[in-house]
Design brief:
mainly alpha; Growth Hormone, Chain: A
């Protein structure tokens, strides 16, 4: 495999680790630095996730547009260096304030997901875009495995140990990328930088001028909100519902990530070949809706663990949608499009954590009229249904 592509995949893996690494240790970490009970920790966890997502929302189109103008290489390498510093800040944070600072920096560096996707679009022929976006999804899935797994296993050495490990890995990836990453933006595909188009709303307005892409952007956003129920509440939900330890939570998320990597790295190629783009997206929605409904009510942690990889089958949706939309825009706007998609995903991450953790906290509090820890999953089921209806209406004529 091309070393530059290996660097891109490792970078996406580390971006995912930045999200998943903190999930298993978050309840204990927040209570260590802030105090309070599990419900209060869940609310603070929602705030930290939202801060991360706000930064990603604001900076994704900016970094995507900068990479369209100045190239993918400088944007990616600088972000790797800053990300390594951010992990050190998280490792030594002694208060909720410094955890917030760490999430601010982490959200900015994670915004390079748009640049990584644009790099993959640069080197992919039109017919292979969706499948190659699947490779990035597989790397993200592997990061979703390694992040929670490292966080869960290293939790026995303290809540800070995972961050030191991540800082070292990120620094090594920076060195690797410095020597192997080749530039893909040429004078032919380079476009002038426009601050108006680099802002989230400006980039979204420009891309959404294509009528056929508008409903797909809505699908991408609503689906992202619904799917984010896992990182938003899984550690709190599984602790409350099944009494899982951080290690078990990490292992469960690892199982989810492994399945997601297999689905996006291999299974999606089979589904696209036999089902086409449209039916692949529909199938992903159906899998997720069924799984959300079951998780909301089951009392067995063993059954929850069994359902985890089934839910990951819905991960075919993202690369399939990305492939369709990437074919709709010109070559000199690939960074801008991926910036918009990353920004929409980040906007979903702003909305979802606060919404999901608030609903979870309300339904487990002592005076709640209905005890239902799985309420956030029921909300995700409804949102997934809305997403599916919009897609069915907006994708008529698509194969």
């Amino acid at each position: 495999m091309n070393p530059s592509v290996v660097f891109i995949l490792i970078t996406m893996l580390l971006d995912a680790m930045g999200i998943g690494l903190i999930v298993p240790v978050m309840p204990d970490l927040i209570r260590d630095v802030q105090g309070g009970d599990l419900a209060q920790a869940a609310l603070w966890g929602g705030v930290l996730s939202t801060v991360f997502a706000v930064m990603q929302f604001l900076f994704s189109p900016l970094l995507g547009s900068l990479s369209d103008r100045y190239g993918r290489r400088p944007v990616l390498l600088v972000s790797m260096a800053v990300m390594a510093v951010d992990y050190v800040i998280m490792a030594i944070a002694g208060s909720i304030f410094w955890l917030l600072i760490g999430r601010v920096i982490g959200g900015i560096t994670a915004a390079t997901g748009a640049t990584g996707n644009a790099y993959m679009a640069d080197i992919s022929p039109p017919e292979k875009k969706a499948a190659n976006f699947g490779l990035i999804g597989a790397a993200f899935g592997l990061g979703f495995v390694l992040g929670p797994l490292i966080g869960g296993l290293l939790a026995q050495y303290g809540t800070r140990a995972p961050f030191w490990a991540a800082a070292g890995l990120t620094a090594l990836n920076f060195v690797f990328g410095y020597f192997v990453l080749r530039e893909t933006v040429t004078d032919k595909t380079r476009r002038s930088f426009s601050l108006r188009r680099a802002l989230p709303w400006g980039a979204l307005l420009h891309v959404s001028k294509l009528p056929a892409i508008r409903p797909l952007l809505w699908v991408y956003f609503i689906y992202s909100v619904a799917f984010y129920v896992y990182p938003a509440v899984w550690s709190y939900f599984s602790t409350e519902r099944w009494g899982w330890s951080p290690t078990v939570i990490g292992l469960s998320l690892a199982l989810f990530g492994i399945t997601m990597a297999v689905v996006q790295g291999g299974l999606i190629r089979v589904l696209l070949r036999y089902l086409g783009d449209r039916r692949t997206v529909v199938a992903g929605h159906v899998f997720d809706m069924g799984t959300f409904g079951l998780i909301a009510f089951i009392k067995s942690g063993t059954l929850g663990l069994i359902l985890t990889p089934i839910a990951a089958l819905g991960a075919v949706i993202t690369p399939a949608l990305q492939g369709v939309m990437s074919r709709m825009v010109p070559d000199d706007a690939q960074g801008e499009l991926q910036g918009v998609l990353t920004s929409l995903h980040a906007l979903a991450m702003i909305v979802a954590p606060l919404m999901m953790t608030s609903i979870f906290a309300w339904f487990i509090r002592d005076d709640t009229p209905i005890y239902l820890p799985g309420a956030p999953f029921l909300l995700s089921l409804v949102l997934m249904g809305v997403s599916l209806l919009i897609f069915l209406r907006g994708s008529r004529g698509m194969s």
